[in-house]
Amino acid sequence: MSKYLGIDASTQSITGLLIDTEQRTIVAEASINFDDHFKATYGVVNGVLDLGESVVHSAPLMWAEALDLLLQTLADQGHDLGAVRAVGGSGQQHGTVYLNASAGPALARLSPGQPLKDQLAAIFSRPTSPIWMDTSTASQCAEIEAGVGGRDALLALTGNAAFERFSGPQIRKFYQTEPDAYANTTYIGLVSSYVASLFAGRLVGVDPGDGSGTNMMNIAARQWSARALDATAPDLAAKLLPIAPSGQPVGPISPYYVGRYGFADDCLVLPFSGDNPCSLIGLGLVAPGQVALSLGTSDTLFACMDQPRTSAAGEGAVFASPDGTHYMALTCYLNGSLAREAVRDQYDMNWNQFIQALQATPPGNNGALMLPYFAPEIVPKVPRPNVVRSNLDPGDASANVRAAIEAQALSSRIHARWMGVEISSLYVTGGASANAEILRVFANVHNCPVHRFETTSSAALGAALRASHAHQSTASYAPSWAEVVEPFAQPVGGSTIEPEPRAIAAYDELIGQYAALEQAHT
Ligand code: ADP
Ligand code: XUL
């Protein structure tokens, strides 16, 4: 028995991925899409609640309901969840969950006879959770930076300048706008620690990988910083769940899962981490140098580093790696899949027609360019939606498709420079990495081969591999990270997309024009 379960509680869906380390294979993968199941009950669109004025939340009770549905699906598919030795997990980063004093007792007495949603509906001091797409906290970001002695001081302390999407600014805004509800909040955690708590049947802390995305963690010490907490909100140290080392199991799984889904009662639960830190592990980036690209709801470009190199221009984020020793550099673009979908829908296409549009247009798009800010953008910072076309006819569907994808790829090349890594190959993951024509554009713009993997869910795979590493480390022989990831983090043979010389030249010419257009509009 050597099975490990990875859970990814993401923006649009929750995924479960089961690996067998003896067979060296992924044995199951199932996903529950929030819109498909919960649009009517929770009102989500693309998994989120757009509350206007750049406020974007989601519903933590929905995540619990979706978790039940996911585990039921895996059980119904005939998978023996009793063989799972440990559960690891990943959550969309930065989102915050607010719980009242009843949360601990309610988690501890979960009964297998009733679904989670019926037993946990009363544990929230705030029914919805602000998530990473919320860009309404600009003033709180400025106040937090000022509170710790300026932007450079916050950067040195936490590895990151204050970003609108980060957790600390979200918490400060809650304290300022809903002081009574803040006072009635007993615990504050992240999406990752909340879903881990559901599994453990008790409150689980925040791992340093996800803690780095809060503007509140001392990145060198991998502990909350009293100075940053003071700058965020009063009494926060008492409310914020503690930092929990990524590799240390927090205990056995709650009896709820034993009784309801047949898990073994000694199945271990690990602290969950962020989706990007988990993807780092799932793609095998456990040594410095390699660079990966995740084409999910957001697009992220990331690399493994020895030291927490920071982005002076405030373009990138730095997180602790859940491997316990390294760091990850990350650039996050909000206009990822949602921008691709916006173009697709605007021209009434499906993904096949989208592919045909890319095939029908030349690299460089005859000089036609788009800035695809269908929503506010993180990198470069664009506060309001603004789609800009240059030499591009809005009526030409195919050229618009190509312009959007080329913009994403060119932007990923321009804004990766701060990482200081030579991009000699790209490892790709995320839902859109299934689309080879999109990847071809990235290969040509970066002038490097793009490698694809068996699963597009590298965050869930990374979560399962973390569970495997932690569980095996409790036995007599502690394997290295390289040994743990090696059987799984292998590109699929024959799937590599190589750059094409003619296209490379076209993009070397176009990139200056794109950068100029970007500068003129940001
Ligand atoms: P997240 O984990 O952030 O919720 P995923 O990594 O699961 O997101 O990616 C989901 C997205 O993948 C969808 O929103 C969809 O736009 C995109 N996607 C799925 N299939 C394709 C395809 N064939 N071409 C382009 N994009 C795709
Ligand atoms: C990373 C970020 C997003 C979320 C959702 O900083 O904001 O990638 O983690 O995937």
Write up what this structure looks like.
The chain has 522 residues and is α+β, with helices and mostly antiparallel strands. 38% of the residues lie in helices and 19% in strands. The chain is built from 21 helices and 22 strands. Strands 1, 2, 3, 6, 12, 13 and 14 form a 7-stranded mixed sheet that branches. A 6-stranded mixed sheet has the order 17-18-16-15-21-22. Strands 4-5-8 form a 3-stranded antiparallel sheet, with no helix packed on it. A hairpin with a 3-residue loop joins strand 15 (291-295) and strand 16. Helix 15 packs antiparallel against helix 17 (397-414). The longest helix is centred in the C-terminal third of the chain and has 20 residues, at 501-520. The mean pLDDT is 96. It binds adenosine-5'-diphosphate (ADP) and D-xylulose (XUL).
> What molecules are bound to this protein?
adenosine-5'-diphosphate, D-xylulose
C-alpha termini separation: 54 Å
Shape: globular
Helix content: 25-40%
Number of strands: 22
Our estimate of the beta-strand percent is: 15-25%
Rounded mean pLDDT is 96
Determine Rg (CA atoms, Å).
Answer: 22 Å
Low-confidence stretches: none
For the sheet with most strands, the description reads:
7 strands, mixed
- Secondary-structure class: alpha+beta
- Counted by DSSP, the helix tally is 21
